[in-house]
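Quick start: read one record
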Amino acid sequence: MASAAAVTSLADEVQCPICQGTLRTPVTIDCGHNFCRSCLTRYCETRGPDLGQPPTCPVCKDPFRPGSLRPNWQLAGVVHSVERLQLASAPGLGGEVVCQEHGERVYFFCEDDEAQLCVLCREAGAHGAHTLRFLEAAAAPYREQIERCLKCLRKEREELQEIQSREKKRIQVLLTQVSTKRQQVTSEFARLARCLEEQQSTLLGQLESLEEDILTQREELEALLAGEIRRFNALVEELEEKKERPPERLLTDVRSTLIRCETRKCRKPAAVSPELGQRIRDLPRQALPLQRGVKLFLEKLCFALDYEPAHVSLDPRTSHPKLLLSEDHQRAQFSYKWQNSPDSSQRFDRATCVLAHDGFLGGRHTWVVSVDLAPGGSCTLGVVSEDVPRKGELRLRPEEGVWAVRLAWGFVSALGAFPVRLALEEPPQQVRVSLDYEVGWVSFTNAVTHEPIHTFTASFTHKVFPFFGLWGRRSSFRLGS
């Protein structure tokens, strides 16, 4: 079988110089060049007659006589053989596109009708005034467009895959949090159940002891009263019987009987011990520890279900030279005197700020900051993205990766392109900062009164760090839990 290169070389030899396609009904003119009969006929119609001169060969420009066109049957046979070789050597032999009308292989593409044509379709004349190209030439610009579309689609697909991966991780984090919270709830309620059982046993024991003491007093009281009642019943019966006697019998020993009645001694029992009543009244006080324990349990449970306490410490590598950090890295104080701090890419050089040592890439975390501001001082609290600029001006706004509030001059402002002063009942001395990475919340509340201060919403994609800014002589802040 002929090689693809040989077939291509033969195909080039049987191309029409006018249409650049394979020769169809080839004819030879006086100079010996060959053309498609239809192509040369149209060529002659547009040349020669209008000028009063014979047309010239499209290849060598020699004049020829339009009436001297000679069919080249031998070349037509070669063309047919070449077409058969092309079909035989085609990679998709048996799967090539064939014209449904003529059964011939498709070689051309009509740009106007967007139709694929075989040689006979092209010769039919219906597409004579249309733009025709070989299939590969017509496909080339579309390949370029497809490549551009593929490039855009692949890029968007990568973005979607990144979003899918990120959101998948976030969902997994949320599921892990749910599992952790379930374990916390189970553990805390089991502990509460044990505590309640102990308290119940204690209170029931006290009630049982109190009941036994009350029953003992009741038995003693009833025994005493029963004896006295029997004695009085005997005296009453004796006097009633003596009263009914005739005079001679009534006067017998009447004085001794009356003396015994008049000199009787009634042993009246003491009232129920007041101590028993007091013990009953004191019983609710025995439940006060339980009440405080349940309240503490609920507070701890709500806190545990809400956020994980973050162990935050200040990073001296990021601290501005005007901030004095304590040895335990839990406190910072502003000073106009610059510290001898080595310069580095991590250190703030204009904004008097400092970051926490560790950042967060997920989860729900909370920490408390106690603020002590001197007159004219200010303190900025929040979180920042790890890629915020450390050198030069730092724009404190969410668009720059900073979600923070500022305490200054007795009020609090949410920082953004335009700071917004927040209406609060009282300026907080302790601020709780809470971060929910997956949901995208940065919340601030008064750690003492639990009054909400402000909440930012965001979509975190990088690690974020607790952020602290300070200004004003003798102003300071301290980290809490």
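Residues 174-306 form one domain.
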